[in-house]
Amino acid sequence: MAQQARIIDGKAVAAELRAGIAREVAALKAERGLVPGLHVVLVGEDPASKVYVASKEKLAVEVGMNSVAHRLPADTTEAQLLAKLAELNADDSVDGILVQLPLPKHIDTGRIIDAIDPAKDVDGLHPINAGLLAGGKNGLVPCTPLGSMLLLKQALPSLSGLEAVVIGRSELVGRPVAQLLLQADCTVTIAHSRTRDLPAVVKRADIVIAAVGRPRMVKGDWIKPGATVIDVGINRLPDGKLTGDVDFAEAVEVAGAITPVPGGVGPMTIACLLKNTLTAFHARRG
Ligand SMILES: NC(=O)C1=CN([C@@H]2O[C@H](COP(=O)(O)OP(=O)(O)OC[C@H]3O[C@@H](n4cnc5c(N)ncnc54)[C@H](OP(=O)(O)O)[C@@H]3O)[C@@H](O)[C@H]2O)C=CC1
Ligand SMILES: Nc1nc(=O)c2c([nH]1)NC[C@@H]1CN(c3ccc(C(=O)N[C@@H](CCC(=O)O)C(=O)O)cc3)C=[N+]21
């Protein structure tokens, strides 16, 4: 039986990261009487979004932050949402603003993201933050890409010169994580739905980041023996079971290290949201 892949424990790494954040927030409160504020805006009743917003709210309170969830009805107009954002932008006690995606169809997502103060954009989606990242400069980085890189560094001491293949090119995951891999001196390939012979492309990779949204799409024989696999996918099967974009049972026999779903990138996304809120706090309030 081949050596099984090391399971990268996102739950444990996320808990460690949150513990460090809690210590830092406690010190801020004790020494400066200040508390970082994270505001999450949810429009409508999307069940998955309600779960994520609830866990973001719970974990932000757990680390001692001021955490407010603004739950707006599905028929909220774009103007009403813009007004809410203007209010949060102007409120000095608000350090981080996240608008849970996806938004209802009648609202223009781009216009909403553009309306968030880039200094409070803890999702890192604002064009200014995306532009800073593309230029290799410091800005707020999207949470899932940040969490994926932290897990990657758990498995690989150095990424320099390694071949990385990112499957998916979304603004939330694929594109930003490709930028972070480039900054870590990987040779980066970004694959997508038009890529020809995807298995052959993935086979070249020392590092595979799967961010597609198709359950168990990446098969074991697509993976180079010993490669590190970061599975960002969160797919709910008809029976309610959660599975990633990678066929975990097959991949674990071939990969050198792999993240599980659940228990991998997901918890890191929330921990990095809290980390981004602290980063925004310090950038804004010293
Ligand atoms: N764990 C976490 O915290 C998070 C998990 N996710 C999960 O990650 C996954 C991706 O999310 P997100 O990036 O927002 O997804 P999007 O739906 O925005 O993007 C999907 C990407 O996958 C590509 N794609 C679709 N089908 C194929 C295919 N057959 N072969 C190769 N590429 C394909 C698309 O290509 P094209 O551009 O050509 O259409 C697109 O670039 C989802 O499962 C989502 O739930 C997302 C955010 C956070
Ligand atoms: N503006 C915005 N920013 C986001 O970062 C964002 C978003 N919108 N929309 C939806 C996606 C998805 N997302 C997840 C967060 C946590 C888990 C998570 O904690 N998952 C647990 C399982 C939770 C469960 O059991 O359902 C795990 O993977 O272990 C998953 C997915 C953030 N997203």
UniProtKB/TrEMBL annotation:
What NCBIfam families does the entry give?
A: PRK10792.1 (NF008058), PRK14186.1 (NF010783), PRK14188.1 (NF010785)
Q: What is this protein called?
A: Bifunctional protein FolD
- Give a GO cellular-component term: cytosol
* Function of the protein: Catalyzes the oxidation of 5,10-methylenetetrahydrofolate to 5,10-methenyltetrahydrofolate and then the hydrolysis of 5,10-methenyltetrahydrofolate to 10-formyltetrahydrofolate.
- Segments forming domain Tetrahydrofolate dehydrogenase/cyclohydrolase catalytic: 8-123
Please state the gene responsible for encoding this protein: folD
The answer, when asked if Nucleotidyltransferase is one of the entry's keywords, is: no
- What residues does NADP(+) bind to? 168-170, 234
EC code: 1.5.1.5, 3.5.4.9
Molecular function terms, GO-annotated? methenyltetrahydrofolate cyclohydrolase activity; methylenetetrahydrofolate dehydrogenase (NADP+) activity
Family per UniProt? Answer: Belongs to the tetrahydrofolate dehydrogenase/cyclohydrolase family.
The UniProt record lists the keyword Oxidoreductase: yes
Annotated GO biological processes are: L-histidine biosynthetic process; methionine biosynthetic process; purine nucleotide biosynthetic process; tetrahydrofolate interconversion
Q: Which domain of life is it from?
A: Bacteria
Give the source species: Bosea spartocytisi
What UniProt keywords are attached to this protein's entry? Amino-acid biosynthesis, Histidine biosynthesis, Hydrolase, Methionine biosynthesis, Multifunctional enzyme, NADP, One-carbon metabolism, Oxidoreductase, Purine biosynthesis
The record, for CDD domains, names: NAD_bind_m-THF_DH_Cyclohyd
Pathway(s) annotated for this protein in UniProt: One-carbon metabolism; tetrahydrofolate interconversion
Q: How does it assemble?
A: Homodimer.
- Domain Tetrahydrofolate dehydrogenase/cyclohydrolase NAD(P)-binding, first and last residues per copy: 142-283
